[in-house]
């Protein structure tokens, strides 16, 4: 196992003991790669009780992955067959296990309406994978997506659904956590390229970085004022990196954009070294993994 992954898991255990039980989804037997399309896949549809509002939830993969999931909502007024464009939506995902003893959330980007797709686009990153299950007492284990939807000054909080995450391709990791030198846990997600667009050549690379605001991992803040000192992709099986990469720099909303040069297909690690904040190293080393 590659060095930073060992480090990742050790830090993960130390800094986030509440979530250690579920951090081993990679060892699951039935690995299937989510199929990814340019079209949207409807994963949930429900009507708010006693209203004409039907809430449709779409994603680009066929299931939510442990990674960066854009989520698109459409709100249809079923009496007029028109779509509501002035709602406010807040994502409030929750993971529960051990009869409610284990509870936490994951980073989100709250949805914003865009006329281009007729819906509200946000994002959600589960910090670990989970199936859906119930114990003998009926207690739920798994993720629940919960929405607070405000339409015409009335807030509805009844729209929620349980979901299981799908395992991504073996030898890949699109989301990681790392202990920062300030005592907080940081979470890093691969925004692009996602699995279907990973290919040989120079590609746009985008990651997003969040701070876990508390040990319970109930809220997360996107962090904008970071400087990545060095970025290099590396092929552990081949023992080489590549030239002509661009270190990601901050854009907005905790996102960092650069470029990566994949000179051949196979397994690559994306290594981020000395992520600086206010002149000191916040994160000494972390990484993500892709394979195509
Ligand atoms: Cu959990």
UniProtKB/TrEMBL annotation:
Residues 221-270 form the YtkA-like domain. InterPro entries: YtkA-like_dom. It comes from the Bacteria. This is YtkA-like domain-containing protein. It comes from Rhizosphaericola mali.
